Amino acid sequence: MKARLQQDMKEALKSHDKIRLQTIRMVLASIKNAEIEKMHPLSNEEMATVIQREIKMRKEALEQFARGGREDLVRQTEAEIKVLEDYLPQQLSDSELRDIIQQTISEVGAQSSKEIGKVMAALMPKIRGRADGKKANEMVRQLLA
């Protein structure tokens, strides 16, 4: 994945695609920081986690920009999110996510909403990089309610 990011950065530089270039540079810097922090090269799964974190930060900023009436920053942030989403594995549909959650609930034997933590602990390794954790948590709450 890192090699693909570096290759795409070169292509963005040649084609003068400023937003793509800027976004890829930022995510490569985040990956480099994570590698320094963990003291080993990141796996593709770990890189996907870094990219998801970058997307989450941009979505939070997007809300702030929209409230502030900064349409220029909203458009730029949306473009950055689209660039980053290209590097994530295929995302699970709602029905696929619900099926995995139901399977996990029966695996851990959860009966009530008090056991959300146990379900989430078993679920996250299965969906990491392929679904949003917040969305999964909401579904787990609905299914255990």
From TrEMBL:
InterPro entries: Asn/Gln_tRNA_amidoTrase-B-like, GatB_Yqey_C_2, YqeY/Aim41, YqeY/Aim41_N. SUPFAM superfamilies: GatB/YqeY motif. GO terms for molecular function: carbon-nitrogen ligase activity, with glutamine as amido-N-donor; transferase activity. Keywords: Transferase. The keyword tRNA processing does not apply. It holds the Pfam family YqeY. This is Glutamyl-tRNA(Gln) amidotransferase subunit E. It comes from Moorella mulderi DSM 14980. The lineage of its organism: Bacteria, Bacillati, Bacillota, Clostridia, Neomoorellales.
